[in-house]
Specification:
Layout (H helix, E strand, L loop, with lengths): L1 H5 L4 H19 E3 H6 L5 H20 L10 E3 L7 E8 L8 E3 L3 E3 L2 E3 L2 H13 L2 E8 L10 E2 L1
Antiparallel strand pairs: 1-2, 2-8, 3-6, 3-7, 4-5
Length: 151
């Protein structure tokens, strides 16, 4: 009972569980781009894309003075076209988005799901409750082979 109150209701337990599980799977699948590039098993097209991304990243730090940190230096093959499916909603006849207040991240205008079916199920629940939901997958991958994810 205390756990249910802590997370804002028992219905949120599934949401937090899938979020933690999804994040852990993402972290487990993540490899440094430099490691993926030298791996003999890496597809040549993927290797070229990652090399190009690394060059762009280096240019951004060197020439544009963007932070030289860990951003865009890792890659994860999740075996699916998207990392997450986000669900947005607004009350009927409104353009004001619904907000969800979550542990750690605070209040946001979406709920992210690591599983498309779970996102669709939640969107259906929102429709039943009288709101107008929309699901969107992130990030879209701009190529025909959509089996991999860049982080």
């Amino acid at each position: 009972m205390t756990l249910c109150l802590f997370v804002g209701g028992c219905t949120n337990i599934f949401y937090y569980a899938q979020a933690v599980d999804g994040q852990m799977r993402l972290m487990a699948a993540t490899r440094p781009i430099s490691e993926v590039v030298i791996d003999a098993a890496t597809d040549p097209l993927l290797r070229r894309q990652l090399e190009q991304e690394s060059a762009v990243r280096e240019f951004a730090s060197r020439e544009l003075a963007l932070p030289n940190n860990g951003s865009y230096r890792s890659y994860a093959d999740l075996g699916r076209p998207y990392v997450v499916w986000n669900v947005f909603a607004a009350p009927e006849f409104s353009v004001e988005p619904q907000q969800w207040c979550l542990i750690i991240v605070g209040c946001v205008n979406y709920r992210g799901y690591y599983n498309k079916n779970a996102a669709d199920l939640y969107a259906g629940e929102l429709t039943q409750a009288g709101t107008t939901p929309m699901s969107a997958a992130f990030p879209p991958i701009p190529r025909s082979d959509t089996s991999t994810i860049r982080c």
